[in-house]
Design goal:
Pfam families: FAS1_DH_region. This is MaoC family dehydratase N-terminal domain-containing protein. This protein is an alpha+beta fold. Strands 1-3-4-5-2-7-10-9-8-6 form a ten-stranded antiparallel β-sheet, covered by helices on one side. A hairpin with a 2-residue loop joins strand 3 and strand 4. Helix 2 runs antiparallel to helix 3.
């Protein structure tokens, strides 16, 4: 944060309560491509059949003209989200509570509201957290309540410069994974996510200081959710996740799970490396 663009938290908190409504249709083509991209088991769902959970991350996304995008590929600041004058924006985590399922062919409506804007001081400087609440409806019926946690930070500390934390523990259930550039490109396309750290290696390395392309937080969340579903044979009704450290496209990584009470604790981690995302899944 520079002297030219001071962070006026009182001004930014004026966005609290602001709402946005967006609509979309969950088409068969999207369901087919999502199923193929995440290599989900079985056949892709047909019209009228239940769609994979977390496919809603692909729906009703802002379609901002290319000329109005910022240098990082995100929409320029202002509008629905507060114009936080910190250049790095990341999806830090979230929580989901399901009351139903989306089906292929559904007309989907998302009502979004800014719930909170908070300024904190981190090890690398100012951090601004924006909490967004989403309500997802299908054919007029509620399906999902979601909390989305966004964090903004300064550009003075490169993304890959922090000291690596200790290696992650091993789960009782494990699955080896690899997220290459093709997977990241396809997921960016499905979610209409223009953030360049996920597909533009030169930008990710030379501008944001990462050692490679960054694996999307929502993609890791979807992989862990799918892992939990396979382990229990049914999708969780409540699910939360939080980013802990970046994961890169050239990293072999592992999905971990451990029984915890009536639910599952899940996490992703680089092979023999640090924790990248933590999650909790509950069925009751």
């Amino acid at each position: 944060m520079s002297a030219e663009t001071p962070l006026d938290i009182d001004h930014l908190r004026g966005w609290i309560g602001r709402e946005e409504v967006a609509t979309d249709v969950l088409g068969e083509d999207l369901a087919r491509k999502y199923h193929a991209t995440l290599e989900l088991p079985g056949e892709a769902p047909k019209p009228g059949e239940v769609a994979p959970r977390l496919i809603h991350f692909c729906l009703a996304q802002p379609a901002v003209p290319t000329g109005l995008l910022g240098p990082d590929g995100h929409p320029a600041r202002g509008g629905f989200l507060p114009p936080v004058p910190l250049p790095r924006r990341m999806w830090a985590g979230g929580a989901l509570s399901f009351s139903g399922d989306l089906r292929v062919g559904d007309r989907v409506r998302r009502v979004s509201r800014i719930a909170d804007v908070v300024l904190k001081q981190g090890r690398t400087g100012a951090l601004c957290f924006v909490t967004v609440l989403h309500r997802i409806e299908a054919e007029g019926e509620p399906v999902l309540e979601e909390r989305q946690d966004l964090v903004y930070r300064g550009a003075d500390v490169p993304g890959g410069a922090a000291k690596a934390p200790a290696g992650a523990e091993q789960g009782d259930h494990r699955r080896a994974m690899q997220a290459g550039p093709t997977l990241l490109f396809r997921y960016s396309a499905l979610t209409f996510n223009g953030h360049r750290i996920h597909y533009d290696r030169r930008y990710a390395q030379e501008v944001e200081g990462y050692p490679g392309l960054v694996v999307h937080g929502p993609l890791q969340a979807a992989l862990l959710y799918g892992f939990a579903t396979e382990l229990r044979g049914a999708p969780p009704q409540r699910y939360s996740f939080r980013g802990q450290a970046p994961l890169f496209d050239d990293d072999a990584f592992v999905l971990h799970a451990r029984e915890e009470g009536e639910g599952l604790r899940l996490w992703s981690a680089r092979q023999n490396g640090p924790l990248c995302m933590s999650a909790e899944a509950h069925w009751a």
